[in-house]
């Protein structure tokens, strides 16, 4: 005795061997954790091709054939009272698609983060010769996080603004340095501010006095100690060509600048050395 004699066969709806199937109003045999029924036809494994693993056969329907008023027909698994079985490949494909999307997202996030990270460090000692409008000069060491290259530079320039003559010792980060410290050469436009013994500066590559507002990479932001006073000055300086003195990947410099070396290692681990 089954709720539906026509489908009361082993494995199908109304299966006498599966009491859960007797309730024709139960969703996917009362097992929504492992089955779905998006097409309203049968319980399907997630990832199955809808409407649930169609099985195409050629034959006669009940009562078909000569004298039966019928002929060859295609029967689905549902018509034959068969249930689709879980399809492990569906889970695999879904997981692969999710993993691929997650990898693309992480690569995009990583690329965005790396563009915002500095890829160089500078240590500078500078001096200003006069208040108002005067001259300035500096000696600077640049550390490249992409390659480990260490270079020194000298600069001379002009400043205008409100500042007391004196000296400044600063450390800062560089963005857009590239693979070579040679990009640190040439004219730079800068703004310096300070109060008391604390001073800072922003500087970026430019066309110098010819066009000081045509700005480009690299960009430098630094902070440090200055001669006591108040500083607010604008200037243009010209940097010498790079004089390479070593590489952070050499053990001697690794031991001499351990913090800078560790930062370089972290940067290269996250971003590589392609920037």
Helices and strands, in N-to-C order? EEHEEEEEEEHH
Rounded to an integer in angstroms, the radius of gyration calculated over CA atoms is: 37 Å
β-strand amount: 35-45%
* Alpha plus pi helix count: 3
Lateral arrangement of strands in the main beta sheet? 3-4-5-8-6
Domain unit count: 2
Structure overview:
This protein is an alpha+beta fold and 275 residues long. It folds into two domains: 81 residues, no CATH class; 152 residues, no CATH class. Helix content is 18%, strand content 37%. It has three helices and nine strands, in the order ββαβββββββαα. It has a five-stranded antiparallel beta barrel with strand order 3-4-5-8-6. Strands 1-2 form a two-stranded antiparallel sheet. Strand 3 and strand 4 form a beta hairpin.
Summarize the model shown.
By secondary structure, the protein is of the alpha+beta class. Helices cover 18% and strands 37% of the residues.
Features:
disordered N terminus; single chain; 275 residues; 37% strand; two-stranded antiparallel sheet; 3 helices; alpha+beta; 9 strands
Tell me the layout of helices and strands.
Blueprint: E1 58-60, E2 72-74, H1 88-116, E3 120-128, E4 132-144, E5 149-162, E6 166-175, E7 186-205, E8 216-239, E9 243-247, H2 251-256, H3 258-271
Antiparallel strand pairs: 1-2, 3-4, 3-6, 4-5, 5-8, 5-9, 6-8, 7-8
């Amino acid at each position: 005795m089954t709720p539906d004699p026509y489908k009361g066969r082993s494995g199908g709806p109304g299966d006498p061997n599966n009491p859960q199937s007797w309730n024709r109003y139960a969703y996917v045999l009362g097992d929504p954790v492992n089955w779905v029924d998006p097409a309203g036809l049968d319980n399907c494994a997630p990832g199955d091709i809808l409407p649930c693993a169609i099985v195409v056969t050629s034959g006669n329907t009940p009562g078909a054939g000569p004298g039966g008023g019928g002929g060859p027909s295609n029967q689905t698994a549902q018509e034959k009272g068969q249930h689709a079985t879980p399809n492990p490949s569906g889970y695999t494909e879904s997981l692969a698609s999710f993993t691929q999307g997650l990898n693309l997202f992480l690569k995009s996030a990583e690329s965005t983060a790396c563009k915002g990270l500095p890829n160089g460090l500078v240590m500078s000692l500078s001096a200003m010769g006069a208040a108002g409008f005067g001259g300035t000069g500096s000696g600077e060491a640049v550390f490249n996080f992409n390659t480990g290259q260490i270079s020194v530079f000298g600069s001379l320039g002009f400043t205008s603004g409100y500042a007391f003559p004196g000296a400044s010792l600063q450390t800062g980060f560089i963005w857009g340095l590239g693979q070579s410290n040679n990009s640190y050469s040439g004219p730079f436009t800068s703004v310096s501010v300070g109060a008391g013994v604390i001073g800072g500066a922003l500087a970026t590559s430019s066309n110098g006095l010819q066009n000081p507002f045509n700005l480009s990479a690299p960009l430098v932001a630094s902070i440090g100690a200055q001669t006591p006073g108040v500083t607010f000055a604008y200037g243009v300086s010209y940097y010498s060509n790079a004089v390479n003195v070593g590489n952070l990947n050499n053990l001697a410099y690794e031991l001499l600048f351990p913090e800078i070396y560790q930062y370089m290692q972290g940067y290269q681990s996250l971003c590589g050395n392609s920037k």
